[in-house]
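Students often ask why inverse folding is considered easier than folding. One informal answer: many sequences map to the same fold, so there is more than one right answer. In these notes we will look at a single instance of the problem. The structure comes first.
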């Protein structure tokens, strides 16, 4: 089989799949044919741009990106050119007769918006890191006379290392656009993120307007929702103008204070960027990036891309009318950030794009998608092996458009990419599972990650020195013949992927009294049970952190710290931790590590008020967390769990429990227990008195139930679990000559003793409204079942505690 033909070429760039789409532009994945470097190629239709009078805006976007050369801004590529040994610098902005092409940095980490949608609000340290990068880049833009004017999470991308990349300068303004009054006068941006003064239409300062948008973004990162939101636009504008918002209770005081100062409706008193840079909450862990400033930029050549002169045009090759061919290299590269970790994620997430593979013919896949989309109100437009699904009903952000493209991975294997082209992302999340639901019934349907995983498994288990298995070509699913050279190249790629994301050092956390201290089992999230040290409140936690760089590598860092954290994690809000205890020790100042280094640490008399708890919907845990902060690459983090038990002395007051079950003229039973508070190894002692029994009782059981409540309001989740069930009797204690018509025949004074040992059961202490997040309560339940299987139920709460051990 021959190599797949190039689908399209623009100048020196080979053009591939579409990775983004807007009203006037498409963004395609492309590769420099000379260097092999991947890029994002933004393609604009000249006729549409001129028709809608967008030429000036496009020119301004190009000019802005040429001015901004910052590590946290999506880069406009520069193309070096040597003529007679003289160096020239050309920007990769090209034009043909019908198109404008802008060559941009290819960012692989997705949008910050998707991260919030899929994982909810962030921890403060994570949100602070993104906000620090955002403020730094906005400050830089302002210093270059550029105001973005459309800052929002959708325009903030993430690179492979999780660093922020600001994009979409289409609505930006340059300082030259400021009028005589020193203000900008164009109302633009996304309403929820727009400053009040922009809405007033009386002119505004681009600096303070951008800063307001940054404040809204910070709120969204920390809260997981918008501070200003209303389905009625006029009501939304009123809320923004009055800065009518409330910070959620889980925010720290420092974060609340900073957000309130940024979201000040008066631009004259709003906090400034220099003031933010010295704010205590903002400064924590802040290290501004160090990068090389480039020389002044010439903006005169931007006009060239709009000219019709042939000398300014690049050649375009027409795309073929068949499914785009994709080889194994491209299949691997479609995993975000070349991170094979994504392939092992068991949950299929529908973000702004999703992919699946099928061995069905391309036409059958198209037919199934069309069949599923039309009943949902989508108009279907087909061209070659591409589809556009347009929802005729307008949503919050206009009509939802979904773009679909089919790629050929092998003659019998296709990959289908589905992405949001236009409209509301939340609506895309709503509709796309239903649209793709029909394709799940296609033969051999699989999410694409499984085929890449199969490729990795086959290659990793085969030595390049051994003959290639005859069936390998078919198992790889490559469009090109799997020659020995291709096989070796793919094997090298996978070896690189296996080790490229490993940290450059190992981190160990060692407790000083680790061997002498009692170890207890702790069940991890993955189901495994590990042995960890046991502590109690007010103890000293002492030990050392050992960092050992990989041989031959150095670790550049911005400081090393260790934190002792007490955290609550609610499973319906996964990934967000609520810290009720937080202590920090700085271990090292910024520098470099070349060899093994040991850092001692001590946390004295630590107050740990709650016991460790692993429940159905909530987890309360204590960890030691070591963080090695780094610039431009992800931080190195190591966690060490430990368990906390808190002990209680015998209560001075422990009242008995009395309960009654009665049905008039039929049943009267009393229960009495010696006390209401029990330690974990205690024995429940009591009696059941039958005062009146005129119904036949089939059986009677005593139960211990645990009730776990998490959340509040509409987000309250209650899980009830029966931990123990003790059968008290089978049949009621009545005489053989029992006569239902004679009340005098009912037995009186009969009783049954109860002794229930708690030690065999997995109990925890009672938790009462822990940080307004969750409660765990225990109940004694008595259940009676009569001949007709009617159940009589009585419940009484008891308190469970961990008894202070005797010396």
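Output (designed amino acids):
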């Amino acid at each position: 089989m021959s190599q797949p033909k190039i689908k399209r070429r623009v100048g020196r760039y080979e053009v591939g799949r579409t990775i983004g789409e807007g009203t006037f532009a498409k963004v395609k994945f492309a590769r420099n044919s000379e260097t092999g470097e991947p890029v994002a190629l933004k393609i604009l239709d000249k006729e549409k741009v001129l028709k809608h009078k967008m030429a000036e805006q496009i020119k301004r976007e190009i000019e802005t990106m040429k001015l901004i050369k910052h590590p946290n801004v999506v880069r406009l590529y520069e193309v070096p050119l040597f003529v007679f040994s003289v160096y020239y610098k050309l920007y990769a902005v090209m034009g043909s007769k019908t198109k404008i092409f802008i060559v941009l940095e290819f960012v692989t980490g997705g949008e910050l918006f998707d991260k919030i949608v899929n994982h909810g609000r962030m921890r403060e340290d994570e949100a602070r890191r993104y906000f620090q990068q955002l403020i730094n880049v906005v400050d830089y833009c302002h210093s270059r006379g550029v105001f973005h004017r459309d800052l929002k999470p959708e325009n903030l991308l993430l690179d492979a290392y999780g660093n922020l990349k600001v994009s979409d300068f289409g609505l930006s303004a340059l300082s030259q656009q400021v009028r005589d009054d020193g203000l900008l006068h164009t109302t633009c941006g996304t309403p929820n993120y727009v400053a009040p003064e922009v809405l007033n239409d009386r002119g505004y300062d681009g600096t303070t307007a951008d800063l307001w948008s940054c404040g809204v973004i910070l709120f969204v990162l920390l809260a997981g929702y918008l501070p200003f939101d209303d389905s009625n636009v006029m009501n939304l504008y009123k809320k923004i103008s009055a800065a009518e918002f409330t910070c959620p209770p889980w925010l720290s005081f420092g974060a609340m204070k900073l957000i309130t100062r940024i979201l000040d409706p008066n631009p004259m008193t709003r906090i400034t960027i220099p003031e933010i840079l010295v704010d205590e909450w903002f400064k924590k862990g802040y290290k501004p990036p160090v990068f090389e400033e480039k020389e002044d930029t010439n903006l005169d050549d931007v006009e060239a891309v709009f000219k019709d002169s042939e000398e300014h045009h690049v050649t375009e090759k027409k795309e073929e009318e068949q499914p785009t061919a994709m080889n194994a290299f491209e299949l691997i590269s479609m995993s975000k950030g070349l991170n094979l970790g994504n392939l092992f994620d068991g949950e299929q997430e529908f973000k702004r794009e999703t992919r699946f593979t099928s061995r069905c013919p391309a036409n059958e896949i198209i037919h199934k998608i069309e069949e599923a989309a039309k009943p949902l109100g989508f108009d279907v437009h087909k061209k070659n092996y591409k589809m556009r699904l347009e929802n005729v009903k307008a949503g919050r952000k206009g009509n939802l458009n979904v773009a679909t493209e089919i790629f050929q991975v092998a003659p019998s294997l296709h990959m289908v990419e589905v992405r949001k082209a236009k409209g509301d992302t939340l609506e895309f999340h709503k509709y796309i599972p239903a649209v793709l639901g029909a394709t799940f019934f296609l033969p051999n349907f699989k999410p694409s990650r499984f085929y890449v995983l199969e490729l990795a498994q086959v290659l990793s288990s085969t030595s390049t020195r051994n003959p290639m298995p005859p069936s390998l070509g078919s198992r790889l699913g490559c469009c090109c013949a799997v020659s020995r050279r291709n096989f070796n190249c793919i094997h090298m790629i996978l070896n690189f992927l296996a080790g490229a994301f490993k940290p450059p050092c190992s981190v160990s956390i060692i407790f000083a009294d680790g061997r002498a201290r009692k170890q207890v089992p702790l069940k991890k999230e993955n189901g495994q049970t590990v042995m960890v040290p046991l502590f109690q409140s007010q103890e000293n936690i002492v030990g050392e952190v050992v960092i050992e760089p990989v041989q031959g590598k150095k670790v550049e860092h911005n400081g090393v710290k260790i934190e002792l954290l007490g955290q609550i994690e609610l499973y319906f809000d996964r990934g967000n931790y609520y810290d009720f205890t937080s202590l920090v020790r700085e271990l090292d100042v910024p520098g470099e590590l070349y060899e093994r280094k040991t850092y001692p640490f001590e946390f004295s008399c630590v107050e740990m008020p709650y016991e460790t708890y692993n429940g159905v919907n909530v987890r309360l845990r204590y960890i030691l967390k070591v963080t090695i902060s780094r610039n431009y690459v992800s931080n190195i983090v190591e966690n060490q769990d430990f368990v906390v038990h808190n002990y209680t002395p015998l209560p001075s007051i422990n009242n008995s429990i009395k309960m009654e079950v009665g049905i008039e003229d039929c049943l009267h039973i009393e229960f009495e227990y010696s006390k209401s508070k029990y330690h974990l190894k205690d024995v429940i002692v009591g009696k059941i008195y039958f005062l009146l029994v005129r119904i036949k009782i089939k059986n009677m059981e005593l139960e211990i139930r645990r009730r776990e409540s998490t959340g509040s309001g509409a987000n309250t989740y209650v899980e009830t679990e029966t931990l123990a069930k003790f059968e008290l009797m089978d049949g009621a204690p009545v005489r053989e000559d029992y006569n239902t018509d004679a009340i005098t025949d009912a037995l009186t004074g009969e009783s049954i003793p109860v002794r229930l040992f708690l030690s065999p059961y997995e109990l925890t202490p009672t938790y009462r409204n822990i940080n307004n997040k969750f409660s765990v309560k225990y109940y004694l339940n008595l259940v009676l079942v009569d001949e007709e299987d009617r159940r009589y139920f009585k419940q009484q709460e008891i308190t469970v505690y961990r008894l202070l051990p005797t010396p």
